[in-house]
Amino acid sequence: MTSIYAKIKALERKVNHKKHHKNINSGAYNALKAIQAEKGVINPSQKKICDEYACDVFGSKLYSPWLYVYSQFSGGFQEGWIPSNYYIKVVEPNLKKGYASLSRLRSLTGILFKSKFSPDIAYYVNGLWFTPDNLLIDPNMLKDLALDHSEIVVYKSDSSARGMGVKVLESKSVEAHELQQLGNGVLQRYVRQHAFFDQFNHSALTTLRIITTVNDLGEPSVRACNLRFARQSQTHVQSQDQIKVSVDLEDGKMARVGYHSNWKSMLEHPDSGVRFEDCLVPGFQSCMQAALQLQETFRHVRCIGWDIAVDEFEKVRVLEWNSLNIDIGFPESMQGPCFSDLGWEKIWRC
Asked: Mind giving me the DSSP string for 148-192?
């Protein structure tokens, strides 16, 4: 009886394993289709190299599709790339374990980081309102507190992701009981972006996604960075139609080519017509240092994606941190291999 049960469970794990990879790899095939439309069909010999590398290094051909994407995007294969599905399936569970989901609980940001870079005003958690210093707030005083910080505020629920679950409103319209209907979350002051970003899009806050890691010696480092622009009609960046432009880690210079979330390339923002090439991101080194500083204070999670804005006074504002399902596909394509010295490719063998 035990043997039959064990076989059934093993079969379930195998089915779920393939289903998981199929879901993630569908994104790879969509990306490859878009890339091939612009750069031509991937060479069979190139695919063979990717297949062999996936099997030899990661233990399965299931990790080939993202290697196809990186290779065709970059114009040739390079050793050291980490397939997106390998990162999610193998790296993340081993380097983060139970800590991975903490970034979804937005009220923990103040307690964990005590950051001067945070625009957080208040947290709503299970019927109670708190300040970032963990002091109780009278719900009737929430509107006054919001008005003290900003004319416009943003509420993000714990369940928000990919730009969804975000509400932008005037502080004079803040009502605690209405925000509570959105569930646990954070109330932030609205960050007015630096004038540099207005030339591309002035309707929504432009953000930097900076990815940091911690190596086996506990040393933090920045691995990748890209700008995320919204479209002109939006109030905030939304993942389904954002514009991504990689940023050089050495000098903060924007890449010549940007990409829509569907991997279609462009030389300029589609709404404003402003070109990306050679533009220098203001306050970039300060953003990098902020990300490193915060990663160093919380080594429990060894790979974090920081969403950072540069405000009108060129001050760093860390909007949120992401420790679960970080998208490494775009950074690996544009700037990779980004993680080749961390030994992640060996984790599955342990």
From this structure: HH-SEEEEEEEEEETTEEEEEEEGGG--HHHHHTT-SEEEEEPPP
Name the residue range of residue 157's domain.
120-189
pTM: 0.91
Residues 6 and 64 both lie in one domain: yes
**Residue 298 within a domain:** yes
Three-state DSSP class for residue 264: coil
Per-residue pLDDT of 285-309, as tens digits, reads 999 999 999 999 999 999 999 999 9
* Residue that is last in its domain, among 167, 189, 211: 189
Cα separation of 315 and 283, whole Å?
7
Tens-digit pLDDT profile for residues 114-157? 888 999 999 999 999 999 999 999 999 999 999 999 999 999 99
Distant-in-sequence, close-in-space partners of 24: CB < 8 Å, separation ≥ 6: 84, 85, 88, 89
* 118 Cβ contact partners less than 8 Å away, ≥ 6 residues apart: 109, 110, 132, 317, 318
Measured CA to CA, the distance from residue 339 to residue 167 in angstroms comes to 35
Q: Residue 255's domain is classified under what CATH number?
A: 3.30.470
User: Quick one: residue 319, left, alpha or beta (phi over 0 = left, psi -120 to 50 = alpha)?
Assistant: alpha
Q: How far, in Å, CA of 36 to CA of 191, rounded?
A: 38
